[in-house]
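Researcher: I'm preparing a figure for a lab meeting and need a structural model of a single chain. I don't have an experimental structure, so a prediction will have to do for now. The sequence is pasted below. Please return the structure as tokens so I can convert it later.
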Amino acid sequence: MKTDDFQQLFSLPRTAFFHEMEQYADLHHVPIMRPEGMDTLLHLLQLQNAQTVIEVGAAIGYSALRMAAANPKRTITTIERDAERYETANQFIAKSEHAQQISLYLADALEMDLSEFPERSFDALFIDAAKGQYQLFFDRYAPLVKSGGVIYSDNIFLNGLTQVPIEQVPRRKRTMVRKLHLFAEHLRTNPDYDSQFYPIGDGLLVSIKR
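Model: Understood. Here is the structure written out token by token.
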């Protein structure tokens, strides 16, 4: 049996509502987490028993809603700076069965007042926003994660660009690629975190806070 066939066997079922969101994302060119990456994230959150999650980069609310649907006791605080995507996320959340689990903020994650959050500490942090800013997001939000909590960073592959020599990367994206390499190296060598990279989806970096 091929690897893809095994992945399909273990893929989590998705409702018509989530298929609708996926179709919207595809039609409007909104990047959302790939299915195999999403399944892995949800499985790791379940193993971790994460009840409180903060997400940087809501987009249309897909990941937040998937995380909420996977555990009815889980609450998600999520931030989106793009007004149009924020409004779309609000609409999808309002249509869902999980609106009470999600707090959505329209803000620049690097500028907002963190005291606005009802939670003061979180079991998990999910970073899925501007790729060139991952280190800044990490530095700002990792202190909110409890000891023993986990930071999940998606898109480390950057659609394959971090896997090729830098001279093969389009010039406009080289700075972003370099920053992602530095971010990954920072976590690999950081004694305060136990980090492991999962080459699944677009690359998921998982860091347990000591």
